[in-house]
Protein 1
Amino acid sequence: MFDIKWIRANAEAFDVAVSRRKGVSVRSSDLLAIDDRRREIIGRLNEAQEQRNALSKQIGQAKAQKDEARAAELMSEVARLKDFIPQGEADERAVEAELHAALSTIPNLVLDDVPVGTDESGNVEYFGRNGSAEIAAKLRAPKPSFVFAPKEHYEVGVAAELMDFETAAKLSGSRFVVLKGQVARLERALGQFMLDLHTTEHGYLEVQPPLLVKDAALFGTNQLPKFEEDLFFTPHGDSRLALIPTAEVPLTNMVREAIMSEEELPLRMTALTPCFRSEAGSAGRDTRGMLRQHQFNKVEMVSITTPETSLDEHERMLDCAEAVLRKLGLHYRVMNLCTGDIGFGARRTYDLEVWLPGQDTYREISSVSVCGDFQARRMEARYRPAGEKQAPRYVHTLNGSGTAVGRCLIAVLENYQQEDGSVAVPDVLQPYMGGLTSIGGK
RNA sequence: GGAGAGAUGGCAGAGUGGUCGAAUGCACCGCACUCGAAAUGCGGCAUGGGGGCAACUCCAUCGGGGGUUCGAAUCCCUCUCUCUCCGCCA
């Protein structure tokens, strides 16, 4: 969310930057007009309140001196403010709400190095700050080659047997899956492996957050007010709770309305949770297999940083996500999302796209975003700079998947599939699989 | 689910209709004293917003919202959360 004072001071820059975003038509002049009205209302209200306060104080003094006549006189004087002040307060509330609503629906400004584009075809491959295609090729697993035609994940022998969409449909409808046996265990192994990696090697604090959250939390991480239709809600008393669409929501909102000390930053948290998405806008897309589900597990990373360190943290978090795929020996690429594809709250987003030989394409498996102070403003999340007394400043927030477990399972099944329908277990997962080197097959 | 108690500044904790944005203590910062430190003394120390070049000034905020009143931390209503007891329960 934007600071109206910043927009006032940088009106032109705001208009230019916001116009880079697809489908955003808001202009600074519209917002500043609301703010002008707001200031005028506040000015008049403050004046009236000042008069009332001064007179009330005099009434108190008169009463203390038992001068009832004087007190009565003052009371009649203040009476003429009786109508104006409540009205002014109501006007102020209304115009504040109007401004807040207008600001709530404006997406974040993107950084200068975000490519301009209208859709995902405008995304640009990214090799790191000092990276190159050559260096990346050395670090990452190569595309696997097959002597047979690789199958899609749900066709791979062991998965065809243990990935049960029919039963899931019976229970819950489409876009659900029942995993069984060694495939279920492999999914569990992946989640454990990722969580262990981030907590032991990357310095993230393991968190088990609530999976049901309030509207206020959803507002903080931008799901509300614009993306309500993507969520599942459950009634709760007179209100409702949402099933989290990502652990970004509870993890980031842990610092909501908090003032941290600078020493606590960066705060790095990770969680393995189920995620629930209605997929309202994707009817007909990816209907086969478990690529796009209403429910899936994901390991999420969230960092809370100072403004000075958030861009470095973005690169660091990207590397933490990449480490998962490197250790699993999965081939992937990194894309810098263009202005037409980037999410609402992000200043820049790197997507990790893993290679799926069965689909013969790259598919998103992780998304790593730096949001600047955009979410912090919505959450009122601040920190007090170290040293001399200083006013609190908004923190910066980052989030990234590390990675989507369900999609990672797909990637392992497709990349490690054998001609006989079995699947080799990647080295790093074998300790989590009781030492098994392969599942399925004869 | 039933009954009761509570929510005040970074923390602890006063304050039940007026001069209270809020005593006091702790913590923190500056100064003095000291070779230095401790102790002691003096001073400072909330957040948001409006106006002003600035010094400064005004408004709001004592869990959230609404109300009574000339005036609310204080009275009323309501919501949220916390604690205690009873019941139920993975």
Protein 2
Amino acid sequence: MAEDRAPVTRRRADARRNIDALVEAAGAVFATSGVEAPAKEITDLAGVGVGTLYRHFPHRADLVKAVVESGIDAVAQAGPALAAGHPPAEALRLWARRFTELIATKRGLASALQSGDPAFRELPGYFLRRLGPIVADLLDAAVTEGTVREDLGAEDLLHALTMLSQPAPGRGIDHNQRVVAVFLDGLRHDPAR
Amino acid sequence: MAEDRAPVTRRRADARRNIDALVEAAGAVFATSGVEAPAKEITDLAGVGVGTLYRHFPHRADLVKAVVESGIDAVAQAGPALAAGHPPAEALRLWARRFTELIATKRGLASALQSGDPAFRELPGYFLRRLGPIVADLLDAAVTEGTVREDLGAEDLLHALTMLSQPAPGRGIDHNQRVVAVFLDGLRHDPAR
Amino acid sequence: MAEDRAPVTRRRADARRNIDALVEAAGAVFATSGVEAPAKEITDLAGVGVGTLYRHFPHRADLVKAVVESGIDAVAQAGPALAAGHPPAEALRLWARRFTELIATKRGLASALQSGDPAFRELPGYFLRRLGPIVADLLDAAVTEGTVREDLGAEDLLHALTMLSQPAPGRGIDHNQRVVAVFLDGLRHDPAR
Amino acid sequence: MAEDRAPVTRRRADARRNIDALVEAAGAVFATSGVEAPAKEITDLAGVGVGTLYRHFPHRADLVKAVVESGIDAVAQAGPALAAGHPPAEALRLWARRFTELIATKRGLASALQSGDPAFRELPGYFLRRLGPIVADLLDAAVTEGTVREDLGAEDLLHALTMLSQPAPGRGIDHNQRVVAVFLDGLRHDPAR
DNA sequence: TATGAATGAGGTTTCATTCAT
DNA sequence: GATGAATGAAACCTCATTCAT
């Protein structure tokens, strides 16, 4: 119907801007008020009407997913890069550090991932599909190398890292990094034990 | 209203029965629907009116606290007993096992403990006050003995155990016991490392 | 739990009063603004909170059904009475008169009955179950007597009466009575035709 | 915006195509979801933006009117033709048959005609203005001939036919034709009665 | 004391309508 | 003229909390 396509692309740019604003605002609001924060709080911060939120993210989980997605890519991509440049166990440790940074600054996301709330039912699956393979590769390499114990699956590890990376009230990210480090120590294979 | 007023003690017994029913029901409902479950769900299960809930537990946190309390005592008391009968590191490990059993079967409690929700603001404090000293004693003994590293505080440890004990969707308590064991391995002091 | 039952009955009376007020208000509002009128309009007229409406009538159809029910009984009961005191064709005509009075003063109900809106899916069934047998008895008697044609089912007749009894904008109930009378004339069995 | 502006007539053709698509789509959607169906549903089916709908049909009633109009002309024109080729009473019967075909396949239109909704306030007037005279002519001829009773006005008749032609859930157009036939039988003048 | 009906604030969601492109 | 993104009012519905009985 529209002979000239130009306006369409222009419009898309506007929409894109709103979508980005929403995801950013949602990230901030989730961090403050949790994943169940009122939609209004998010749209106000994004400077956008409620309708716009629902147009782009019909379900709450869509928005949460977008927020997760917005940070997850860099972490996912870091996996292969670290594997290439470091010995397996070290690569795993460095990757976990990155992962903790991601989760620890996104209060409430992890709890959404395991909340059991039907609205978020798909999220853990998405999360695992996206990061599971990266962890599996890192873990397998270290197990093959013989420096890491083999009795813990990639998903178990991912879940443990997720929980330990949860922001703890009254403590900073250092706390998370410390307990994650302890956990990874425990993961080291030590035949003498 | 009631012409035949039952003796006071009789009433007390009734109240006690209701309180117990409420706490038990709340535990079950929290496990199924999370700590934010509708009050009605709890009172229906307890076979009691909503008013009764509010009489005994004016705030949601009071009820959560009661539920936590109902399981926490045995775990708290187990601390000294285990310390008396086992070497420090082993005592710590056994106690952690008990603790995990408690938390892993109370879905949602840990997340309430760290939810940041103002309604639960007092809970972490209560939790720490109650269990902090027990962990501290077990931990100090092991550090003194030299079998456990000294760079992790009792509260950090308690928090880490709490997170790792969270029920993971699709996995059972075995998962929690496994990752807790890994964590405790990491806690062991190993000068050779 | 409550030893003395008296208060319960008392309370029921209060609730009953609200329910009656709601049904009456709904009848009035449906007549003015149609069956899809905002819930608020109804509760305001009934002098009751929205919550009360939803407690007693969780679905819109429940309320419509109650409104229908509130008038339908007298009409249903009139069937046998008229059959006993009049020749069949006359009984049918008199009953139709009563039926038209009922429907014509409840603007919008009939349209709900055949709206196709999923919310009202059960209503036509309810309506037919309630009145179908009455019409069938009246009709059968007249057919047996030989004064009424036999090629129209009771449900067809009921539906036709319902449609012709719909309040017509700008016309009063006389209009409905007149067209219903014409229809019933058409129903008369006349072998000579 | 558009550098290459198409000739005006070309534009007109496009607009015409859109209008036709909208009316057709509206007819289909009204049949399925009622006259109050979301605008989006209609524009999607027409393959057109919402803005286009509002440009051509600023008010919902305009669209309904267009849909009604699209079918009404043939029926209106059939009046004189039938009057010319048949005896009055027969002409009336045949015309009613055509009318029923029109209404029975346009679910929801008749209810819009008498909904009382301010948005449709003009529709009944339009409907009567268009078809009233046709019915009046047919009716007058039959009354003059002496085969049809004279105590029912053309508008009363039109309204009755409209109601009886309403699609009945679970029944087909046969049902409507049957009850309309009964009604017309009732309309016949029979001095013997 | 216990009850559960009533309340209404607060959140969600839908959709008619506008308007920049 | 056409588009469809954005808007926000308006409706829905749920539930924590109060309070008359």
